[in-house]
Give the backbone structure.
Amino acid sequence: MKKNTRDLRRVHRPSKPNPNRARGSRAKGRVMEMEGLWPRPLGKSMAILLWALKEMGKDIKKTSFDCLHIEKGAHIDFRDPASIRANLDKIRFVELKTSNRPNLAPDFDRYFCSVTQSELDAGRQLGEQYVVLVYNLLTGARMWLTMAELMARAKTVTPCYSIRL
């Protein structure tokens, strides 16, 4: 008897919780708080931010950054595209890469992380406004790099494809 695959797709299979994912989110939240970073906008505010960027020829995905660094004294209303366009030069898009390795060198020599295609694209389009903050949670060592600086420091680059079935 042949199984109907359409019926199988409709069955919800609950996933197991991943404790490491929650721990990583808490760690990134702690780094954001220590560094004075703003969480990325959600919902309609995120849609308006991405739309305002797209109007300016910068088509990035919402998953390409973790948080924002907003210049001191800047007042940006993320519900108003005009406010975003007027203050875009005061916003830096930040991707966080964290580690808890005790033996990691302060200059992050031999540090390994993954970089998605959407992060690479955002770095290319936003230039100096897109930064990667590499942070060691155990030692407090940190390094701010543009995507170009990160790629220039890379000793090896191995492409990887994430596939959803």
